[in-house]
Amino acid sequence: MERSRFWEIIQKSKDYSNNDMEVQLVELERILCLFKSEEIISFYRVFQDLMNESYHFDLWAAAYIINDGCTEDEFDYFRGWLISQGEIVFTNALADPESLVDVIPEKSEEKTFFENIIYAAGRVYFRRLDEEIPLRTDFKWELKGEEWSVENVYDKFPKLSSQRKSG
Fold this sequence. Notes:
Radius of gyration: 16 Å
Shape: globular
Strand content: under 5%
Number of strands: 0
Structural class: mainly alpha
């Protein structure tokens, strides 16, 4: 699947959802149900590629600031949320995590974690074939970038930090 097609599918599910993650998930799975099994696998692989590309300390720092903490598992869920926001938000966040200041609502108590989207393609595939979606073996998960500490994370992204402190 071409990335442009992947992003069209994500955008369609997002547009339908009115920013409700559960509605977006249902719509995404509805769309994927229309695909052949090979297309579901292809969608899943693009999703995994994007999860891998966003496996970066800077994004983890941003997730930590935005959510007032972020465990390793929650960082996976944050990256799922980031992908669910669409191509522009995703690409901008990779280039500059502080761009998320324009996406995160001020004074929001809602976390930016979307765990279930990570499993959407696998659930649809399982319902279709009664077997697990084939696992990726063609890349190694490697956290990129420079590690940060809790003591200095808020200095790393002052715009995000300022917005969260004022919220």
